[in-house]
Here is the input.
Amino acid sequence: METHRITVARQLKSAGREVFPAPESEGGWSTLVSREEKRQFAHCDADALRAELERQQRLFPQERFGIVVVRDGYLVDEYYADGVSPSHCFDTWSCTKSFVAMAWGMLFDDIACNQKKGSPSITLDTPVYSLIETDLPLSDSRKALITLRHLLTMSSGIAGEDHGLFGVSTQPDVGPFEHALGFGLNTVGKSAATLVADPGMEWHYSDPAMAHLSLAFFAVAGCEMNQFVQQRLLQPIGIETAEWGTLGGGLFMGPHTNPMSGLRISARDMARFGYLLLRVGRWQSKCLISDHWLCEALRPSQSMNLSYGYAMWLNTNRTRWPALPSDAFALEGSMTNRCYVVPSLDLVVVRVGAGPAQWNEPDFITAIADAMEVTM
Here is the structure.
């Protein structure tokens, strides 16, 4: 099987065609095995790369994680901690937010197409509270000015982590979406009722702000975001492992897609999503995410934090990852979950796992970037 996959990949490359992986159940990624293959087809120093992957196990022997490195469409190497298999899925925490941003980009494209048929227009600058279906009043009159753009760029003024709001976990008598809208305290007694800044004036990393995007998406699309993404994005690129849960329900608003965290996925399948972004939203002959939206999402979205696009982390001016080119971007989640995409290196690096909470990220990504500097 491995020999066949490598042979097919060689034929595609020699014909000038890009390599796209089949679903894992149908053979998966084209995998390079020998040092010479990795040097020839992926311009990679296999020994240096392997040394860094194995070093992660030595540094964090108690942690469970998986790492996948893809270059030029090939799976160059992968590493799994003890007890973890290639099919093992992890909660990738805030990496989930980047899937939310892509879902909205796809929805905006749908709306633009339907507008030609007479449907109403919804854009980044549409006020979100004009979309959310709720009888609750505004907890702060300034919230009427919050747009979809503000929410996707963390500039809504809704309190976040620097004000004690991590996630939307609440006491039993408060629903998660009610809390996000400003009605009810979280588990540590913090509220999202009053804005900490006027919309568009400050940058605050806010999970309650993201919760608004789930409510608005359901109201506009008429379906849950996780269902939309499954059908329109995950299935077409062969992702078979992902699970994305919901929040709320019962006596409270919902259940609706959890837009802050909760997307569980394997390292290999997360690499597919990174590879889709690397290929500018195109998978084989199909355009799944428009290049217009990716151009918008992968540039600084506001002036307060130039390292943040639309729920994507950027390497603007090489300030976030100095060892990587300035075109690098990433999905980032707690417990050391990452999906780095470096277009100028044709590189995707994924690390998913259950920890640690803190790690040697600069050393990790620098060593991998250095291993990719081998040329023919």
